What does this fold into?
Amino acid sequence: MSKNVLITGTSTGVGYEASLLFAQAGYKVYATMRNLDKAKNLREVIKSSNLPIEIIELDVTKTATIEHAVNKIIAQDGKIDILINNAGAGFAKTLEQATEDEIRWVTEVNYLGTVFCTQAVLPHMRESKSGRIINVTSVGGLVGQPFNELYCGAKFAVEGFTEGLASYVGPNFNIQFTAVEPGGIRTEFMNSAIDKTSVNGQFAEGEYQPIFEKYMAGTQERLSKSDIPLYQTGKEVAAVILEVAQQENPPLRIRTSTWAEQFCALKTQADPDGTKLVNTIASNLL
It folds into this structure.
């Protein structure tokens, strides 16, 4: 019997590529997205390649759509073997510049969506005593970065959420948790971040503007001198997600590129994949 995988945020980018890779690897894929009008490309590939992918509407900021999607899958197949919390959105703007609505939005999309999708799927995995939950976070979930404090804050929350669940749900119910941490990705994610968060093409204003310009100039200089590529394709990141899903003993966390590994080295060198710490916590506290 093939395994079922539920993937959020599949209209473009990593989620789109992961849907194709998992289906090609023999999984039954439930590809979900907020706006089904954006499903045209995926539908065409499904039809031309006869892939086992079903597209379902799911908006991670609306719990009713999450519950509806999960209930539909359980009614059809009776199980969800893997949940990939991929949906997210970039956000680059100073805290002072951000509106209350924007702060709530970036938190809902990047953190609470993961929480509510996991909450909906977890009872079914717990009942079957098996499952995998893979949360796509970011190097921004380990390292805070200028002009990304709100995005990083949400991704830090996903990291703590993942680690907390892994410390007791994992060993007691045979459910495995992994945080996948990409660096830069060449997808619509970046374009969406620019469209959503810039104000007249700027991510900062007032006294922050010269700091932002200095930051960007330094970033460009470092990129030009680096022999390690910063940006990955969505397919390259999706390949890491598939690899994690197929491992018997997956890591608690994994970076998806050499650049991401080096960027986070000071935070991760004592316990690169997080397994040592979470196992220690589980053994000492339970």
Observations:
- The longest helix spans residues 100-128.
- The mean pLDDT is 92.
- DSSP finds eleven helices and nine strands in the chain.
- The two ends are 34 Å apart (CA to CA).
